[in-house]
Specification:
This protein is mainly α. It is built from six helices and no strands. The protein starts with 7 loop residues before the first helix and ends with a helix.
């Protein structure tokens, strides 16, 4: 087992496991052989068989052999897990973490070396192992030097772990303090932004009020100018009306004067005068004939 890098102790443990695996393998092969023997003894009693009968016998044999092989493979896998459990338990006592490379389980070169070891060294060491005392369990390392080194390493790691824990507590305290400061700063910044927002709103309102005031004053100035223009226009219109009325009166007088100077006016006036005199004469006559009251 020099190719695997094992010491004598681990070599003996590997031989023990291989012996166990071989005994289980031989037992399972015997079981499979018995299946065939049972088929021969129970079914092969006639000289001729039909195709269906042969197929039925082979199917039954296949099911039995398949069950036996599957059971052996499952049992082998579970056995390997229990072996790994023992190794991992011993490693964890010394705070070790074992690692495995699954791809190496299919390394043909290593598998051939194991097969060669099983053929040669396994037989030569068989007699030596029979003289040794049986070891039901994997014994932990009890060498004084190794245990002392492991204990020192464990003590050093524990001391370093305590230092790291103390440092972690300090860092956590600093982080909490920094978090509190950050929270206070964020709150102060939020309040400042709020005040700035209110100040901006006030400034905006002041600008709006100033603009409205300016518009109002401009409107007042415009209204005053408009009112003054209206008053001036009204006075001008009144003066124009008076002038027009005066011109109209003068025109009427001038027209009447011109009309009086015409012949038709004079004739009409004479006719009206005569008519008035006739009316007066008629009224006098009527008064004569009317009885006195």
């Amino acid at each position: 087992m020099a190719e695997f890098g094992f010491n004598e102790h681990h070599q003996n443990e590997a031989i023990n496991y291989m012996r166990f695996a071989r005994s289980k393998r031989v037992l399972r092969l015997k079981t499979i052989d018995s299946c065939f023997e049972e088929l021969k003894d129970s079914r092969l009693v006639e000289e001729t068989f039909t195709v269906d009968e042969v197929r039925e016998m082979l199917d039954g044999l296949q099911a039995v052999v398949r069950g036996e092989v599957e059971m052996e493979l499952i049992n082998t896998a579970h056995t390997n897990v229990l072996l790994l459990r023992q190794l991992f338990s011993q490693a964890e006592k010394f705070y070790l973490r074992l690692q495995s490379d699954i791809s190496e389980l299919e390394n043909r070169e290593l598998l051939e070396q194991v097969a060669e070891f099983e053929k040669t060294d396994f037989k030569t060491t068989d007699k030596q192992l029979n003289q040794e005392t049986s070891k039901p369990k994997l014994a932990p390392l009890n060498e004084g030097g190794v245990s002392e080194l492991l204990n020192k390493e464990i003590a050093r790691l524990q001391e370093e772990n305590n230092k790291l824990k103390a440092r972690l507590r300090t860092i956590e305290s600093q982080a909490m303090s920094a978090l509190d400061d950050k929270t206070k700063a964020e709150r102060a910044l939020k309040d400042l932004k709020k005040v700035q927002g209110e100040q901006q709103e006030i400034t905006s309102l002041e600008d709006t009020v100033a603009a409205l005031k300016e518009d109002y004053e401009r409107s007042l100035c415009t209204s005053a100018a408009s009112q003054k223009d209206l008053q001036e226009n009204l006075i001008s219109a009144k003066h124009e009306l008076l002038r027009v009325q005066e011109q109209l009166a003068l025109a009427e007088k001038e027209l009447e004067k011109k009309f009086q100077q015409t012949a038709a006016y004079r004739n009409m006036k004479e006719i009206l005068t005569k008519k008035n005199e006739q009316i007066k004469e008629i009224r006098k006559r009527l008064q004569r004939y009317e009885p006195s009251e």
